[in-house]
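Quick one, T. Sequence first:
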Amino acid sequence: MTSALLDGNLGATQAHAFFRQALGAWSETTNTPKSKKADQWVHDNLTGLDPHTGKLTPLFHPRRDRWLDHFAFDGPRIAGLSAVGRATVQVLDVNDARRLELRAEILKRSELV
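Structure tokens:
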């Protein structure tokens, strides 16, 4: 998945796995994300606010949406290209310091190959 992550060619299954990992701990029994910020279960977030417009927006759906229509890499940072992408980036906090550090390391190592 690393090369697909780096070049932005994520399929629906890969995108689903990527965002599933982005949420942090995951319960295999209930197939729901566990909050990375507190030891409590995260509710199903289907919408979020687009930070540019303030409008309630559906989040990225890996089985219905195309990753490249909504996101792009800016170095290790993931940028939302659309209202869906921006809301998803914000709600899932995909650019927190830990994830940026990990993606920067992946990029660095891929340049060595």
